[in-house]
Design brief:
By secondary structure, the chain is mainly β. About 5% of the residues lie in helices and about 45% in strands. The radius of gyration is 21 Å and the shape is globular.
């Protein structure tokens, strides 16, 4: 990896997002994902000394950690809608995909981002997540906007205590 400062450390992220539900043998490609955001959730407790006229902070303890992932998908598929709606996927008598909304209590499994960007180091990410219904699904869009499925997932702690693993793959240096 180039030592900062170096323009080869700039990053315009692109990637492929897949999800493999626990107990299922194959990962599902979630299609085009224009956004994938990881947000740490850290709760802290601050302590202040009262030994002088003005209280001063002398210690901060982290009391809780977690993380969420938010992603936007613009390919409307049965699997993607099922994750959004916590629904069971089925097939009706005409061969159409059906989703029974809020009929499944959880989708848990491994989400993976494989970096495919041309600019900057490629960053991969893998974590165990549990999807949580969030946001809205627009059946009808304004003008000629594309429909977007917004998903949110709680990142689960893995057996090593990690809330996801990032891998930075070094790219050839540009001149």
């Amino acid at each position: 990896m180039p030592t900062p400062p170096d323009i080869n450390n700039y990053h315009i992220g692109k990637g492929i997002v897949t999800f493999q539900e626990t107990g299922v043998t194959a990962a599902v490609d979630l299609g085009n994902a224009p956004s994938f955001v990881y947000t740490p959730n850290v709760t802290k407790k601050e302590h202040f000394s009262s030994r002088e006229g003005v209280r001063t902070k002398d210690f901060t303890a982290i009391t809780q950690v977690g993380a969420t992932v938010k992603l936007r998908l613009d390919e409307v598929t049965g699997d993607n809608l099922a994750y959004f709606a916590l629904g069971q996927v089925g097939i009706d008598t005409a061969g159409n995909t059906t989703i029974s909304g809020l009929s499944k209590t959880q989708f848990e499994g491994e989400i993976t981002v494989t970096g495919t960007n041309d600019i900057g180091q490629q960053v991969d990410f893998v974590a165990t997540v549990r999807f949580v219904p969030s946001g809205d699904f627009n059946f009808i869009t304004d003008g000629d906007d594309f429909t977007v499925i917004e998903l949110e997932a709680e990142v689960q702690k893995d057996v090593n205590g990690n809330f996801g693993i990032w891998t930075i793959r070094e790219q050839p240096v540009t001149v």
